[in-house]
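Sanity check

After download, print the first record. It should look like this:
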Amino acid sequence: MYALVYMLDMTTVQRAMPASEVDPETWADRQVAEVLLTHGGDWWHGRFFVFSGEDALASIYQNVERLRSIDWFVNALESIEVFAISHNSDIGALFGIQTKHRGH
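Expected structure tokens:
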């Protein structure tokens, strides 16, 4: 299994999102989830997506290319990382990293 974790600048996201939206974090999460879950992602939590199966790593890189075609995502992107995970404790550790990065 592999995890794709990314961080976005919410000020940039807020400028890009439709005026009818209220929360830039929720809007961005939904937009990215729609892409990643449609194209091989197994499940997600915020900016943390898990891919499994034989072609998981290839799927992640294909999805990064899809995300690179979204202007607001590229402009707001602060970091993007891919981690190999083997069991639940790895997932728990990555949740900790994600939470720390988000300032919670």
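If your output differs, re-run the checksum step. Summary of this record's structure: Confidence is low (pLDDT under 50) at residues 98-104.
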